Amino acid sequence: MTFHHLDSADDPRVSDYTHLTDVHLRKLREPAEGLYIAESSRVLRRALAAGHRPRSFFLAEKWRGDLADIFEQYPEVPAFIGSAGLLEEITGFHLHRGAMAAMHRPAPVPLPELLAGARRVAVLEDIVDHTNVGAIFRSAAALGVDAVLVSPRCGDPLYRRSVRVSMGTVFQVPWARLQDWPGDLAVLRDHGFTVAAMELTADAVDLDRLAARQPGKLALVLGTEGAGMSESTLAAVDLAVKIPMRAGVDSLNVAAASAVAFWELRPRD
Length: 269
Known about the structure:
By secondary structure, this protein is an alpha/beta fold. It has helices at residues 23-33, 41-49, 68-73, 84-91, 111-115, 130-142, 160-165, 185-190, 207-212, 231-236, 254-264, and strands at residues 3-5, 35-39, 54-59, 79-81, 100-104, 120-124, 147-150, 175-177, 194-198, 205-206, 218-222, 239-242. It is built from eleven helices and twelve strands. The longest helix has 13 residues, at 130-142.
């Protein structure tokens, strides 16, 4: 493999890595250019293990030996090496978790294919905090959720922070971005899913009571931070469900609530 040693932050060959801290820019640019950034050696390995293809590697010299086996597997992929200060100048932050890689985004999975054989699906409505998106994916992977669907305005599961917070588990859970919201909830119902909104409504069912019904196929919709579920979405679901609270607490953070719900509503057979 040929390693390319960087001596300028303006090197056009590493444009994939510039201004990584500019969230608005990266949210627009990465999907449009068909790329995402895998940050840290662990996340990079999980991305490759999931079959994702690297565009390039980006690292300081001290991490070169740790990824020698990866470089041997992908001799045709350029690896750019620079000083810690230069890499920080390019990206906008200090790299301390090992190598990074610019990765090709995998092709979207058609919704019917994603739902085939699934029993538990999470649906994220307009959750914009990438930390929450990543945490929900980590819980989904750990607690047996078969697929995750995200609304058109939801944060990008492959944004750098989402991937990092998920510890790379976002690569393990099949997901798709819906185009017609909330109209696509009808597709779930057509595939035999009961669609439940995680929301505090007057008629919301306690989580354990819904679990006792042992629904065969269940899609759980989680609403955006703060505002919660939209009225149009609540009108499109089959029922609302809530976590019983104590001590005057009215709700949990959406990521924490998702973990509780995924565990309680898991299939029991």
